Amino acid sequence: MNRLTGILLAVLLLLPAAAAAQEVPVAEVGTNFGLVVQSGGGQTLTHFGIPGQGILGQPTVYATFFTADVYMIEPQLALNIISGGGSTFTTLGLGGQFGYLFDGPMMNSAFVAGSFQFQSVSSSGNSSNDVSLGGMFGYRILIGSTAAVRLEAGYHRWFDNHLNEFSFGVGLGALIHRR
Questions:
Q1: Residue of 64, 57, 67, 27 lying closest to 138 (CA atoms)
Q2: What are phi and psi of 95, to 5 degrees?
Q3: CA distance 104 to 145
Q4: Which of 54, 67, 139, 145 sits at a 20 to 30 Å CA gap from 106?
Q5: Closest residue by Cα to residue 146 from 32, 17, 25
Q6: Of 75, 73, 76, 70, residue with least CA distance to 24
Q7: Which residues in 155-166 are b (16+ Cβ under 10 Å) and which e?
Q8: Is pLDDT of 33 > 70?
Q9: In the predicted model, what is the mean pLDDT of the chain?
Q10: Are 176 and 62 contacting, i.e. CB atoms less than 8 angstroms apart?
Q11: CB proximity list for 110: less than 8 A, separation 6 or greater
């Protein structure tokens, strides 16, 4: 075997190992904690939660999917069912974000995202729904190849309830890699 063939063989054998070391996460699953301030009608309501800082301040679970190296698509879910004294109070929150990671999912990166949220509240046969549009910005910090911490701030406008919602929080997520 000549020297060039040996080098090519070594490169071909090392490429899969290098690719595995640079394996791009396909998703991040996590939750947030932090502060949400809602203002409307001359009133202000402040929520702090661990977990919290989600849809209308509720504990929310997110699953971020990374596409095209810099984009993220993120469905969100919040569900609370409180029952007692013959009554049941239910809130369901659904949301989504479409964001841009400036340096991609493999590195610490600043990000921006546009988002929408839907909230349904029902109790004793009565229900109300509301939707919001908003945005978020922040910084995502990787912890090895298995986790990420997101420092983020955002704004949402809830249309039917005429609420302005400001959020400040930390997201903690586990990374999922393609095998």
A1: 64
A2: -145, 175
A3: 14
A4: 54
A5: 25
A6: 70
A7: ebebeeeebebe
A8: yes
A9: 86
A10: no
A11: 101, 102, 103, 137, 138, 139, 140
